[in-house]
Amino acid sequence: MSVKAVNQKKYREQVLQKIEENREETVASLLEFLGHASRMTQEAGAQTYYAKLLEKMGLDVDKWEPQPEDMSINPNFMACRDSYKGSPNVAAVCHGTGNGRSLMLSGHVDVVPEGAGWSKEPFTGVREEGKIYGRGSADMKGGLIANYMALKAILDCGIRLKGDVILASVIGEETGGAGTLSLIKRGYKADAGIIPEPSDMAICPVSMGVIWYRVNVKGLQAHAANAHLGVSAIDKAFVIASALEKCNKEERMTLKHPLYNEVPNPFNINIGTLQAGSFPTSVPGEAEITGRIAFSPEEDVEEAKKVLEDAVYRAARLDPWMKNHPPQVEWYGFCLNSGKVEMDHPLLTLMKKKYWDVTGKDARVIGTPWGTDAGSLIRFGGTPTIVFGPGPRETAHQVDEYVSEEKLIQVAGVIACTILDWCEVSEQ
Hints:
Blueprint: H1 3-21, H2 23-34, H3 44-56, E1 61-64, E2 89-94, E3 103-108, E4 126-128, E5 131-133, H4 137-156, E6 160-161, E7 165-170, H5 178-185, E8 192-195, E9 203-218, E10 222-223, H6 233-252, E11 269-276, E12 282-283, E13 286-295, H7 301-317, H8 320-324, E14 328-336, E15 339-340, H9 346-359, E16 365-371, H10 374-379, E17 385-387, E18 402-404, H11 405-423, E19 425-426
Parallel strand pairs: 3-7, 3-8, 8-17, 9-16
Antiparallel strand pairs: 1-2, 2-7, 4-5, 5-18, 6-19, 9-13, 9-14, 9-15, 10-12, 11-13
Helix pairs in contact: 1-4, 1-11, 2-4, 4-11, 6-7, 9-11
């Protein structure tokens, strides 16, 4: 075994031991982090807490509020708010000694509303039987803490790196990725990146894209007693819904990708809501369908839009009423781009090896079943990014969301070992 290999093993063992020694600190940090509710517009408390963690490591923290003009780097971005006041991004750079590759570790701090039906308090953080419960524990404050503890263990061991490590906590992922676009616009870029979204420890070199749609369907309002004089917008909405389902079965289900074999129809069209009418005794004169279309890493946003628009307008042309009163398709509220890292990318090769080193098992390599900020980092930030995190994807956005304590520690270990080899240890 070469001297370099011996040293790599020594550093790896030191860092993994330190992560285990820091287990209680890891759990305590996540529990406290979860106590800061970070719904949209309420992220400031959680971001201040994360910034303090980074400052404790001796890093200079950059904290700023994204500006609407930052989003211009993504022509498909759709804002859900006019201002990001009170919703800061946080980033810090652990500077290397030079001549090493840089790595960005980023994640989103914003969480979806907690909803009803929790058996535990969603914003206190509860440790119970090897699990840590709380809104955002899986998606994805657990991942943010894993990033932090991975780098902290390296620094605690007195190890210096050649390459820079960027730690970032961004806002707005759940509503389209504003925080990451602002991060890119501010100049943060690395040779590669990791986002610890809830992949349940699967390594995801590809991320699907997601965009929301709205279809406005016209009818002809009339009194219910004179229904024959009206045209029900609900009936016409059903025609459109049927066309979308047909598109799902005949077109979207035939769209395959080798990393999405676990999901029957990953790039589907979903109908989320149908609203119509204005009064019980009136024939409804308008209806609105909303939903999302997911798209492959091989597709871009415009291609996905065309698939859905073609299905809607094709059905409308075959309907005597809608032919002359066509529905309108709008794109609104949410768009996360797809993105991919090639299967022979050195970060993917390295992460699979580090996964084995830490767990003694082969890693599952799949695509994400949801949109992530990885697409923006890849497409607009020039940072090839892989998704890999501790949270079980099934609990994201659900009541009693949790992350496994053991997987949190293991993910921190894999990320730390990846940092050591990717950025390289400096002997200076």
